[in-house]
Each structure stands twice: as C-alpha cells, then as structure tokens.
C-alpha cells in the first residue's frame, strides 16, 4: 500500500531544509516528509495511523518462493524526529509473499550496523535510528518456501542530534502500565532515578525511585494527567498520555506526585480518594534508548 495522497500530511520536501543544528535535511525522490505541529511530540503510534493495517491473504496457493521484488520503496520521515522512519512499499501483483524482511544498514560515528525487521504488512516503522547517520534500506519478500528477490536499495540520512544517557536495567515497579518492553534507567538532577518501560522507543511508562534497588513508583499529577512529566525524560514538550480516567476510578496506591513542571515531587497516596491522577503511558518526543 501507499500512504494517502494528502498534501497536508505528506510532502516531497520538509518545511525547513535545515535542521536545528544547521545540517541540510535529506531530500530525494524516494523520501516523503510527514508533517506535525511543532509542539506535538514525535510519535511512532500517531504516524502509523496514516498507514492502515492490511488483512492477511487467506487460502493463498503457494507453489514456490516469491518471484518479484517489492517496488516503490519509500522512506517516510517526520520533520524534527530523527529516531525513526516508516518504510512503505508495493507488493507485486499476484505475488506469493506472506512476509517481508526489512533490512537496515547504517554508517555513522558509532560504526556500521545492520538490523532486520520482519512484517506481514507492506509498511513498517524502523526505530532507534541514530542521529546524524547514513542508512540504506531494502525489503525482501518471503513465504514458507523461501525468499524472493529484494527491492532496490534506498539511502537516507538522519537529522542531527545529541546523546541521551540511558542504561538498560531490570527494575521492580509498582506497575500500572500498558508497556511491557525493555526497562531503562537514568539518574536525574533532582536526586531521583527515572525508570522507563517501553511500549516502543517513543511510547513508554515513566517511574521514579530513590534507589536503583528500590521500587520504582508511578508519578501522579495534581492539576492534569501527567503531560508535564515529560520533563523527567528531558523533554520540554507537554506530552501525550494514556487513557485518562477520573482520579476516583484509579486504584489508590503510593507514588510520587506534583502539581506543575519544575516543582519537586512528594511521596504519598495517589489515585482514588487522594484525587491525584496517574496514567499508563507517555509520549514525550524523546526516544529511549538512543539519540534525539
């Protein structure tokens, strides 16, 4: 499939040809720029809403490996979001492909790397891209009888960025989350450890703890639904947050809380009769792990 032909969302060039560090953004016939509001955080989930899921073909008569390569491989990138792209391609007519291997090769300051993602769709997000690095992408069709010829190789270069310091560390949390992925921690200037558990590299649950070995607790918000908690992952944005329940419908538990950005946190009861909201996930525009 192809992304919708919607000029308000997709464009062949960015609004600004220079990124925040003065580097020229990558422009090529196979690259499309997806637009977002400047104050909106980068979001893989929101970006993928423009690429509807396809139904899996049933009762397909497979007599051999796919015979034709995918075509029209396109790199869709969001201006100001260097940590991911969405690759989109066309399946050959009457082809027997049931899955695709998406191969990413990178060259950059940290050296050369290769990764492979498998999908049954004709689009996929490629996450954890490094800032200021060059990539080559290709897609290879496959089915139960083997692999077919790969697509053409398309290049892309990410925007500038700077290091984010996160360490993968399995911590104990007082869990209230939709996220079940890897866990990362970082020490903060306010003498707390921030812990995150990933849904994906741009959607995660944020926790706080006094010590690495102790419990990582939910963070409550006395005046909102945690939008300014993105400060804990070094984002200046007010982020998106998970489903917002009335605070009296949330289980009452212990956790940290505050009312406004920059305010020190207090430990106590949140949710329930405490009338302090907490949420299941955050999208702050900061990718974890990696660079932003």
Describe the structure.
With 292 residues, the chain is an all-beta fold. The chain has 2 domains: 10-157, Immunoglobulin-like (Sandwich); 167-283, no CATH class. The protein contains 1 helix and 21 strands. A 5-stranded mixed sheet has the order 1-2-3-4-7. A hairpin with a 2-residue loop joins strand 8 and strand 9 (146-147). The longest helix is centred in the N-terminal third of the chain and has 5 residues, at 44-48. It starts with 9 loop residues before the first strand and ends in a 9-residue tail after the last strand. 39% of the residues are buried. Residues 1-6 have low confidence and may be disordered.
Distinctive features:
five-stranded mixed sheet; mainly beta
What order do the helices and strands come in, and which of them pair?
Blueprint: E1 10-11, E2 31-34, H1 44-48, E3 71-78, E4 81-90, E5 99-108, E6 111-119, E7 123-126, E8 134-143, E9 146-147, E10 154-157, E11 167-168, E12 172-173, E13 183-187, E14 193-200, E15 203-209, E16 215-216, E17 219-221, E18 240-241, E19 253-258, E20 266-270, E21 282-283
Parallel strand pairs: 2-3, 12-16, 17-19
Antiparallel strand pairs: 1-2, 3-4, 4-7, 5-6, 5-8, 8-9, 8-10, 11-13, 13-14, 14-15, 18-21, 19-20
């Amino acid at each position: 499939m192809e992304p919708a032909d919607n000029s308000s969302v997709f464009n062949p060039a960015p609004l600004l040809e220079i990124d925040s560090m003065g580097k020229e953004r990558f422009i090529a016939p196979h690259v499309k720029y997806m637009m977002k509001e400047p104050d909106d955080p980068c979001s893989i989930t929101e970006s993928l809403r423009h690429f509807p899921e396809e139904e899996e073909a049933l009762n397909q008569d497979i007599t051999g490996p796919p015979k034709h390569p995918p075509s029209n491989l396109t790199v869709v990138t969001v201006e100001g979001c260097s940590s991911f792209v969405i690759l989109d391609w066309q399946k050959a007519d009457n082809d027997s492909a049931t899955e695709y291997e998406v191969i990413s090769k990178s060259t950059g300051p940290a050296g050369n790397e290769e990764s492979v993602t498998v999908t049954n769709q004709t689009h996929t997000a490629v996450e954890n891209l490094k800032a200021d690095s060059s990539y080559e992408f290709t897609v290879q069709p496959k089915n139960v009888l083997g692999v077919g010829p790969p697509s053409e190789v398309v290049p892309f270069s990410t925007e500038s960025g700077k290091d984010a310091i996160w360490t993968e560390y399995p911590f104990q949390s007082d869990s209230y989350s939709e996220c079940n992925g890897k866990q990362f921690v970082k020490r903060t200037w306010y003498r707390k450890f921030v812990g995150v558990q990933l849904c994906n590299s741009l959607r995660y649950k944020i926790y706080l703890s006094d010590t690495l070995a102790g419990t990582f607790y939910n963070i409550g918000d006395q005046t909102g639904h945690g939008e300014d908690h993105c400060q804990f992952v070094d984002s200046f944005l007010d982020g998106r947050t998970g489903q917002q329940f009335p605070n009296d419908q949330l289980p009452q538990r212990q956790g940290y809380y505050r009312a406004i950005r920059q305010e020190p946190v207090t430990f106590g009861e949140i949710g329930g009769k405490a009338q302090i909201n907490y949420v299941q996930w955050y999208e702050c525009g900061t990718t974890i792990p990696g660079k932003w």
